[in-house]
Amino acid sequence: MSENHYAEFSECSMKPQDVLEYVSGPMPVPAEGEVLIRMKAAPINPADINFVQGVYGVKPVLPHSRAGLEGCGMVQESRAEGFRKDDEVILLRGVGSWSEYVAVPAVNVMKLPVKVDPVQAAMLKVNPLTALRMLEGFVSLTPGDWVVQNASNSGVGRCIIQLAREMGVKTVNFVRRPDELRDELTALGADLVVGEDDEDVVKNTLARLDGKRPVLASNAVGGESALRLMDMLAPGGSMVTYGAMSRKSIKVPNGFLIFKGIKLEGLWVTQWLKNAPVPEIEAAYDKLARLMADGRLKQAVDTVYPLSDVRRAVEKAQEEFRSGKVVLSMERA
Amino acid sequence: MSENHYAEFSECSMKPQDVLEYVSGPMPVPAEGEVLIRMKAAPINPADINFVQGVYGVKPVLPHSRAGLEGCGMVQESRAEGFRKDDEVILLRGVGSWSEYVAVPAVNVMKLPVKVDPVQAAMLKVNPLTALRMLEGFVSLTPGDWVVQNASNSGVGRCIIQLAREMGVKTVNFVRRPDELRDELTALGADLVVGEDDEDVVKNTLARLDGKRPVLASNAVGGESALRLMDMLAPGGSMVTYGAMSRKSIKVPNGFLIFKGIKLEGLWVTQWLKNAPVPEIEAAYDKLARLMADGRLKQAVDTVYPLSDVRRAVEKAQEEFRSGKVVLSMERA
Q1: Is residue B289, in this structure, part of any structural domain at all?
Q2: CA within 20 to 30 Å of A180's CA: A6, A210, A321, B88, which one?
C-alpha cells in the first residue's frame, strides 16, 4: 500500500459537511522518534465539529488542514523507543486522526495497557478523561456525595455517570428527554434522571436528595441550565464548565459567589494533557482503559461510518437526537 | 452613666434613613465570658446599608434590630479572661456596633496590638481584611505581578492599592472619574488609574502592562465591568467577587472558563471570620493594625457624624460621590 486517505478542509465553515473532503495522498514516513500508525477508528465529537468551524480553542492551519482530534490504531512501524509494530495505541495530541495512516512523535501516542474494542478505544482520549478530571480534579468527593450535571446523555455525561458509580458518588442528571432516557441512564448508574423544562425542577429535585446538596456541578450547556446547576449547589460548591451547547453565556448572580461561596472553573482536557506530568496522564488512561476493557465504562455508539463517508458522518453527528456517538472506521471500505 | 444609646430599626427598607432610630435603653450588663465595651467609632459600609435593607447575607432579627457591623471601642468592664479595662478593641462578629455600649462574648472581640486612631481602627475589620484576603487568599502573587480591580476608589479598593504596594504587586485601577482621582490614588501606590467608559479600554490598558496580564481581578461591581476584568486576565487567572455595586449579574462567556481557564470565586470576610483558625485571624489583623498605626494603610474619611445623627449619616453614606467613608462617632455629642 503506497497511498493514504484522510479527511481535510481548506476553509472553515459552520457546515463542516460542505468543506470536508475525503482525499488521498502519499503514505506518511515516520521520522526519528516517530511512529507510523494505521488508524482503526476515530469518533466525531462536538470539538471536531467546532474545529472545522474554526470556533474551537485549537485553530486549524489552512489550507489543507486535516481533521480529527482523537482516535486509536495500531503501530505499523516504529522509529521511537518503547513502541513496536502491532502495539495498540491512542493519539494523545495533535489533529489528523481522520486518516488511514499518521506519522506522529511517540510522545503524542499512548500504548493501551489492555485489549480494548477499537470503537471504544477510539473514544478514550477526550470524553472519559474529561469525566475523570471532572470528578477528580476540582472537588474532593467521598462516597455518598452528590454531583449534578446537565447534558447527561452526552458522551462525557454518560462517562460521568459510570465513573461516579465506581466511586460511590451519586448523580443528578439533567436531560431533555427524561422519560425516554431514564431506564438507559439508570442502568449505567444514574441515581436521578430529570427533565430541564419543569419550572420547579430545582426545588423538586433537591427534595429528593435526602437533605443533601450537590458539591460539584458539571456544566456543558451554559445559559439557564448552568444557572439551575449553581442554584442546586451546596455552599462552597464548584461548577466546572467543559462545554457550551446552548451557546449562551453563564449568568452568575453575584450573591452566589459572595454569600454562597460558589466557585466557577473550566475544564479543557486538551490543555490538561499539555501540562500534566506524564505519569499522571498515564495513570488516568490506565484506569480508564481497564474500566473500558471490563465493560464498566462504555460509550454509546449511534452509527459507524467508513472514513470515505466522512461528510455523511459529520452531518449525522450534528443531528440533535442520536443514540450515541458517530464513529469513523478506517477498517471498513 | 446608666443609659445607653444606639441605632435600631424595626422594619427593613430600601431607604435605611426612614427606618433607623436613635433610641435609648438600659446599660447592657456583661455576662460571664463577656466584655462591656464603650464604643468609640463605627463606619457606615455598603454592607450596613444592605443589612438594614434586608438584602445582606446576614438578616436582621426584627423588630428592634440593632445596626452596625463593625467598630472599635475600649473595654469598660471585663468578665472574660484575657481582657481588662481600657483595652482597645475592635468587634469581630455580630451586629449592633452603632451603639454607645455593647456587651459581647470575648470571642467576638479582638485586642489591638498597637495604638491606632479610633476612626481608622473602626474600619479595620471589614475593608482592610477584605483587601488582604483578596491579595493573599486566592492567587499566589509575586512582586511584579499585576492585579486589576474595579471600584478602586472604594474603601476596599484603596486598601488593595496600599497592600499591593507593600507586596511589590502592581495594580490597574478602574474608576469612574479617572482624571479627578488619578493623583490621589497614585499617591497611595496605584500604578495605573483608568476610566471605565472608554470602548477600547481593555486593549489600551493591556498595552501599558509591559506584555503582562493581570493574574488576579478584584470585582465589586458585576455586569459589564466584571466582563472587562475577565477579558484582561491572564490565562488561568482568577476573578474574585466581593461586591455587586451595579446590581447586575456577571455574564461569563463559556470560552473564558473552558479555553482561558479562568476561575471565578467569591469573597465574604464575614464567612471567613466564622471559619478561619483564630491564629490566622489574629495574624491578619496584627499585620493590618500595624500598617494602620504606621500610616501605611489609611482609609479615606468623608465625614464623621455623632451617633445621634445616624439618619443624616446614612443618607450621606448613600450619596454617590464622596471623598471617603462616613463614620459614626460615639465620642461626639
Answers
A1: no
A2: A210
